[in-house]
Amino acid sequence: MDATTFRLYLVLGTTVLLLMAIVIVVFVAYYQQKQVKQQLALKELQERYRRELMAATFQGQEQERRRLARDLHDEIGTMLSVTKMSLNQLDRKLTDNVAASLLLQRTRSLLDETMSNVRRISRNLVPTTLDRFGLVAALEELIEKTTDGDIHIQLECPVTLDTLSSPMEVMLYRIAQELVNNAIRHARATHITIQLFCQANEIRLSVSDNGQGFDFDDVMKDKNRGLGLRNIESRLSVVEGHVTFDVAPGRGSNIHIQVRLPNHEPEPEPA
User: Fold this and answer.
1) What pLDDT digit, counting tens, does each position of 137-149 carry?
2) How many C-beta atoms lie closer than 10 Å to residue 237's C-beta?
3) What is the pLDDT of residue 253?
């Protein structure tokens, strides 16, 4: 074999080895890329399943609330009303017994208070105003029931609000309800502001208070204390929403909710 032929074989062999190396590298890169795509697809599928599971969980909670509210109103409420009627009939027959009559009056007063509490619990479980008149009216009713001489709550929102789906309204109402209750019970706030408005293709809900604040990290570490806040995050994850906690111990809290509205086109700017 002469030198020319040897060099030719050497070049051919080197070329074949390079081609094989390139093929192997391309195959490995393709395989890794395919694995990455499969992992991303699996994570997306798991995330979608998680959101669907959370949505089903919250839907089940709302259905259970409605069932309990219906049972309270239809069964317990009816039984209390019948009991009150029986007491009234008994009271008319005890006109000569002053002590028994006073006891019946006291019992009737306690019964009236119990009936009032049953109605209140039923309305809290399922705010009928939300179903009938929408989110803004339900928030106004929440404020009216919560405001007293020491606590002032105000709602800032446009006169007209974009039409929202029923699940979206329920979610925003539950979040606002949770934040208002936290501000009063835990932060001991005396002034709370609820802001609700649509901007471009998203809806924003903010709840601010002048309470004593809290340490967000400490609260979230405590399973007993952070349940409400984690519940808010879980609700928002279903609709790919976002929450920002501007909080700190010793000062008021500002909590902002952002939720993108599906199939919502931004309004054109005025000419």
Assistant:
1) 999 989 988 888 8
2) 16
3) 93
Q: Compute the distance between CA of residue 9 and CA of residue 13 in angstroms, rounded to an integer.
A: 6
User: What are the structure tokens assigned to 48, written together?
Assistant: 């979608």
Between strands 202-209 and 242-246, the pairing is unpaired
Amino acid at 72: L
Q: Is 62 exposed, middle or buried (0-12, 13-18, 19+ CB in 10 A)?
A: middle
Pairing of strands 254-260, 191-199: unpaired
- Phi first, then psi: give them for residue 174, nearest 5 degrees: -65, -40
Domain boundaries, the chain: 1-126, 128-271
Q: Is it true that domain 128-271 has CATH number 3.30.43.10? A: no
CA 220 and chain centroid, separation: 16
Per-residue pLDDT reduced to its tens digit, 46-95 = 667 666 676 677 677 777 777 777 777 677 777 778 787 777 777 777 66
Q: CA torsion 163→240→64→134, rounded to 10°? A: -20
Q: Give the full edge-to-edge strand order of the sheet including 191-199.
A: 152-156, 191-199, 202-209, 254-260, 242-246
The span from the CA of 6 to the CA of 267, in Å, is 76
- Tokens read off for 84: 């009150």
Residue 127 and residue 132: Cα distance in Å, rounded?
9
pTM exceeds 0.70 for this model: no
Nearest Cα to Cα of residue 61 among 244, 258, 234, 260 = 234
Residue 190 near residue 210, CB atoms below 8 Å: yes
CA–centroid distance for 122 within its chain: 20
